[in-house]
Amino acid sequence: MSHTKKYTEVALHALKEKGYRITKPRRLVVEMLNTSDIALSAYEIRDRLEAEGEKVDKVSIYRILECLEENHLIHRVLMTGKVRKCQLEDEDHCHLNQADHCHHLLICEQCGFIEEVHCPGMNRIVQQVAEDAQFTVKSHHLEFLGLCQKCNSPHHKKTAAN
Ligand SMILES: [Zn+2]
Ligand SMILES: [Zn+2]
Ligand SMILES: [Zn+2]
Ligand SMILES: [Zn+2]
């Protein structure tokens, strides 16, 4: 895995800054999320931890995920409710408090690979929609489904068909 330790450090540091204690369950869940490039459910996180000999109950995992989500450290896939670490949170150009800043997911329907993109133009669209509908928009959800580069390559398609 390419980004091995960085996410764990960034996420735990962010929690500490917000005044959260770095308890063992919190650290375990963050470390588990770091190892996965695909989205996981709370059950899957619990099972994977258990396989490593660590016991964290489901309610605690739900609470930890809620906390991570509130702090923009994970993203939830709308269709499945599963979560994955935020991949962009430590980049220099990532300014979460900017009004027009969002992260959107590109989800591969074939292999589950998820890529994150910044959508700086979204704010204008949201403003337009709000204006047209006379509606106060507080948040929005948008994700893209399709095929990742790997699953879309002709070679991969051919071998998959055989
Ligand atoms: Zn993100
Ligand atoms: Zn960002
Ligand atoms: Zn957005
Ligand atoms: Zn794929």
How would you explain this protein's 3D organization?
The mean pLDDT is 88. Helix 1 packs antiparallel against helix 2 and helix 3 crosses helix 4. With 162 residues, this protein is α+β, with helices and mostly antiparallel strands. It has 2 domains: 90 residues, Orthogonal Bundle (Arc Repressor Mutant, subunit A), CATH 1.10.10; 68 residues, Dna Ligase, domain 1 (2-Layer Sandwich), CATH 3.30.1490. The protein is built from 7 helices and 5 strands; from the N terminus they run H-H-H-H-E-E-E-E-H-E-H-H. It binds zinc ion (4 copies). One zinc ion binds next to loops.
Largest sheet: 3 strands, mixed
Instruction: Provide the CATH superfamily of the largest domain.
Output: Winged helix-like DNA-binding domain superfamily/Winged helix DNA-binding domain
Count the E strands: 5
Write down the secondary-structure element order: HHHHEEEEHEHH
Form type: globular
